[in-house]
Specification:
The chain has nine helices and four strands; from the N terminus they run βαβαββααααααα. By secondary structure, the protein is an alpha+beta fold. The longest helix has 29 residues. The structure holds glutathione. Glutathione binds next to helix 1 and helix 3.
Length: 204
């Protein structure tokens, strides 16, 4: 069975967790202590998570892992479009989305995990502004979001920190703190909540 070396509160790890659950790939998660990378170093030769070990192959880097899963679990639904144009559209979307959402997200995240002693008090509101932009995009976009699950997965791997759902909070209690700090009211972004619902299940 696939082994997933997981640092559960981290977004790149959440991305892989979501991908495994979306594709229905059975896996065993080994939780990584952020202060002790020995197991990860031993299995992969480097210290960063996520890492998977599967069928004699060891892989790090979340994007590489997603590509691997699509290439090696072909009976499961694809995450990333198989055609070049579809892939390019997803990459363009990711660039514009990351540019908007990540800066304010990072400030709150590093504060929540005690890497920063303080955060800019404006960061949660800045994050919510970008989420409002995203809600608008979901209403206006002519793209069919379900055509490229990777787009929704990428949204989920950032925005689930603000809208985690009970299952993710039960699995990783730190998500309660993230949810409180980001401060999004339930029902404020209905299109986004609908998009996130299956990913809340996959995250649990
Ligand atoms: N590009 C890599 C980045 C990996 C990465 O930065 N992992 C973080 C967790 S998300 C990590 O292990 N950081 C080291 C640390 O927190 O000490 C990926 O997408 O997986």
């Amino acid at each position: 069975m696939l082994t997933f070396y997981e640092l559960a509160p981290s977004p790149n790890n959440l991305k892989v967790h979501l991908a495994l659950r979306f594709k229905g790939v059975p896996f065993e998660a080994t939780q990584v202590d952020p202060a002790d990378r020995a197991s990860v170093l031993e299995v992969s030769g480097q210290e960063l998570t996520p890492v998977i070990a599967d069928k004699g192959i060891v892989l790090n880097d979340s994007e590489a892992i997603l590509q691997y899963l699509d290439a090696n679990y072909r009976d499961a639904p694809r995450l990333i479009p198989a055609d070049k144009d579809g892939r390019k559209a997803c990459e363009a979307w990711q660039r514009s989305f990351d540019k908007r959402i990540v800066p304010s997200w990072l400030d709150v995240f590093f504060f929540a995990i005690n890497v920063r002693e303080a955060m800019d008090p404006a960061s949660p509101a800045r994050f919510r502004e970008q989420v409002a932009w995203l809600e608008e995009q979901l209403g206006q976009s002519e793209r069919e979001w379900s055509d490229a699950p990777i787009d929704a997965l990428r949204i989920a791997s950032w925005v689930l920190y603000a809208l985690p759902g009970e299952g993710l909070i039960a699995r990783v209690p730190l998500f309660k703190k993230f949810q409180q700090l980001f401060g999004i009211e339930a029902g404020a972004f209905p299109r986004l909540e609908e998009l996130l619902r299956p990913w809340q299940e996959h995250a649990a």
